[in-house]
From TrEMBL:
Residue ranges of every copy of the VOC domain listed in the record: 6-129
Organism: Lentzea indica
InterPro entries the record matches: Glyas_Bleomycin-R_OHBP_Dase, Glyas_Fos-R_dOase_dom, VOC_core
Name recorded for this polypeptide: VOC family protein
Gene3D superfamilies listed in its UniProt record: 2,3-Dihydroxybiphenyl 1,2-Dioxygenase, domain 1
A Pfam match: Glyoxalase
Upper taxonomic lineage: Bacteria, Bacillati, Actinomycetota, Actinomycetes, Pseudonocardiales
Coiled-coil blocks: none
Length: 133
């Protein structure tokens, strides 16, 4: 079976790529990596320097401006692992300070989760589970 070495990037369709990129710069300290254009779309790529996580925000000319809905077929959410459950409380305070829409930390049998949304309503989570790779 072929293999791959790591995730290269994740790309999201956004109503306003610059608005989304600005939010991620402010909330997560992401840095500009590249801007690209194609036929009917443009994109902004950001990188999180400490983890080399790359997120791309594509703005399609045909975008109808609808809000993200995790109940529809497609993307549900993306999780960011934290190494200590106390980090979830730190992130929660950070989200409060930046006006981020979030659900307070919840502890489940499978792990602890802090769910939040970006400006397009796309759902993300900070996640802790002991022994999680």
């Amino acid at each position: 079976m072929p293999t791959f070495s790591k995730v290269s990037h994740i790309s999201f369709s956004a109503r306003d790529a610059e608005r989304s990129a600005t939010w991620w710069r402010q909330v997560f300290g992401m840095k500009d990596l590249d801007q690209v254009r194609g036929d009917g779309w443009r994109a902004i790529l950001l990188i999180h320097p400490a983890t080399a996580t790359i997120i791309e925000f594509q703005q399609h000319d045909a975008n109808r401006g609808e809000v993200f809905d995790p109940a529809r077929t497609g993307f549900d959410h993306m999780g960011f692992k934290v190494d200590d459950p106390a980090e979830l409380d730190v992130w929660q305070r950070h989200f409060e300070e930046h006006g981020v829409t979030f659900t307070p930390v919840v502890h489940h049998d499978y792990g602890s989760v802090l769910t939040f949304k970006d400006p397009d309503g796309i759902q993300f989570e900070m996640f802790y589970r002991a022994g999680h790779p």
